[in-house]
Amino acid sequence: MIKKIFLLLLTLTIVSCASKKDILYYQDLKDGTQEYINYLPSSIQINDILYIRISALIPESAEPFNIQIGANANNINMETYRIQGYLVSQEGSIVFPILGTIKLAGKSTIEAQNLIAKMLSDGGYIKEPTVSVRVINSKITVLGEVKSPGTYSYDEQNLSLNQAIGLAGDLTINGVRNDIMIIREVNGVRTYANVDLTSSDWFSSPYYYVKQNDIIIVNPNGPKIKTAGYINSLGSALGIISFGLTLYLLLKK
């Protein structure tokens, strides 16, 4: 009886141990490896808020097209720009001063800049205008087995999946590293993808860089799922077995 209990305890201990293959990131990378980075421009989406700035050789000619932020410009913060920015409608367009309705959804910020500059130039409003377009409400949501799940805003034009997970404090020891789910909505189409963080095969995929409004889900591993039961840890299980063994030995006397 005691031998059986000892073997059970030993088995539980071995099963609970995680291997390197379950924990280490990018196990196939070798020292000195180099590869070119392919930057993929994000496209403007419905509900994005855009900051658009027009510049010209004659500054006065650009004033009617720019958001007026008032005299106390030193106290302007990003939230002010979000409130006064251009919200991309459900139809994928914005209403811009003088130019009217402009459809921008699906275009990159560079394409949007070129389009607005062409409309200003062709309409005779500004000669050789300079246009800057930025998405100022970019955010991603990280859920599951990370240290700080939540929704995070970012300003970068290209934010990698690694950086996004870093914003949430990295995966916990209980996060499944080879099955990270990404939920992405682009132009009204929702797609799902799974990424293996123990391999670098996905570095050249469309999911190396996150897009605004991506949802990243880190599923719990088997031991973590089992802790949701009444016996919520290996320590608890061993404690119960140890108590049972002690009780058995006392009653046997």
UniProtKB/TrEMBL annotation:
Keywords for the protein's UniProt record, in alphabetical order: Membrane, Signal, Transmembrane, Transmembrane helix
PROSITE patterns: PROKAR_LIPOPROTEIN
Transmembrane segments: 230-251
Domain of life: Bacteria
Domain Polysaccharide export protein N-terminal intervals: 44-135
Molecular function GO labels: polysaccharide transmembrane transporter activity
Span of domain Soluble ligand binding: 139-188
InterPro entries noted in UniProt: Poly_export, Poly_export_N, Soluble_ligand-bd
Protein name (Swiss-Prot/TrEMBL): Uncharacterized protein
Organism for this UniProt entry: Flavobacterium sangjuense
